[in-house]
Amino acid sequence: MKYLCLVYSNELELHSLPDSPKDAECMAYAESIQGSGRMLAAEALESVQTATTVRMRNGKMSITDGPFAETKEQLAGFYLIDAKDLNEALQVAGHIPAARVGCVEVRPVRQLNP
Amino acid sequence: MPDVAVTARVERVYREESRRILATLIRLLGDFDLAEEALHEAFFVAVERWQRDGVPDNPRAWLVSTGRFKAIDALRRRARFNASRPLLIAQLEALEQADWSDEDVEDDRLRLIFTCCHPALAADAQVPLTLREVCDLTTEEIARAFLSTPSTIAQRIVRAKAKIRDAKIPYQVPTLTELPERLDSVLRVIYLVFNEGYSASVGAELTREELTREAVRLGRLLVELLPEPEVMGLLALMLLHESRRLARTSACGELIVLDEQDRSLWDAGMIAEGCALVERALKTRRFGPYCLQAAIAAVHAEAATAGETDWPQIVGLYDVLMQAMPSPVIELNRAAALAKRDGPLAGLTLIEGILQRGELLDYHLAHSARAEFCRQLGRVDEARAAYERALELTQQVPERRFIEGRLKGLGVR
Fold first, then answer.
1. I need a surface site. Which of B146, B204, B218, B221 has the fewest CB within 10 A?
2. B-chain residues within 8 Å CB-CB of A91?
3. Which CATH superfamily is domain A2-108 in?
4. The complex's ipTM?
């Protein structure tokens, strides 16, 4: 079953806390998940300063600078994985290096009905 | 007309085995509601079939097998509405008797408890789900016990079951690496049930026996299935608290504090069982907060009179407990014990320190303990103010009556 693991953390602290992971560690973890056959996709994201939000209402597209909402913690990256069950997904998510300084939301992917 | 003896036998099997059978069906069918339906249909068939063919040698296996067939029938009837059913039906048909042999049965109960207490489930759903699925309480009974409504409880249970299904929480006993945190959740749920029964948070009754009984039963089941030190510690703690039930309240429902309890009313059997468990647990040297709290309760239980209580040992145990599980409430309880060893002023100083830090300001027991020490030191005005503060903070009728009694004892302002 597919799960999306959304990594959240306070951007201002993500890279500067004593326990913060360096890029090398993040890449190594991604490789290990790839090696275990569970990886479907994973990316780190640029800062929320670079975000743009778009909406379409009544045929009119509106574009605003910034994330959809101002939050204490921001989306830092994601993993899309294939796991046997929630326990397995939680183990993968919990060991994402950024989980040490942020948190990871784990949600099952919904199969759309044709 | 069904034979009375057969019906009685079926009822006995239900009483003794239905929880085990349900746990196995849940594992095999992967769905709580399907399993419950299957369970009931299997027992229904049993009444008629056992009369015709005699009671089977292994009633449990027969009921699981029958339940499985009933579930397949039910799924077939619904297959039109759900595309995933054919696969499930095929899997169920392929199961063999070996898949529910006796050795697995105890594992199934353990799996069920761990699943109902999975930390991924809403905190307020774990207790009702466990009471419903593991203890077979009805939603009405659970609602009554927690002073909620059946629809609120039912909603929580339904959401929890939906989460188990949609997020695919597996029916599994956790692996060794997962076990410490998962076990924490199970112990927390059992202790919540016990505490709710032991000192009901709102209302006229001080205790709700059926909840403490269920908690102790769950604790016993867990010790049987998983004899870890903290599991033993929790059961010991519950037994030692329970042993004082009759002495805790007077005939008219008044609260009697530990110092003033008639110790001849303490249940010696529970005390013996509790103390033995504590000893066993402490010997493993892998004990934690539950064992330590149980050890403190055991020291109280072993004192023939209040005056013979080994307070220095209790303070020592609290010192260790504070390291394992630092919390202001534990600090408060330690202060009360310390006062017994070193006098009320020492206790008062500690409690005032906690309150000055801004902790326990809304905890009625902190204020009533402070009031008690002020009273003992002859500081009547301070004692009165503290008792009045405590009174503002508790809705529990016996506790309120107790505090009002103490206020009266201080004399008129």
1. B204
2. 178
3. Dimeric alpha+beta barrel (3.30.70.1060)
4. 0.85
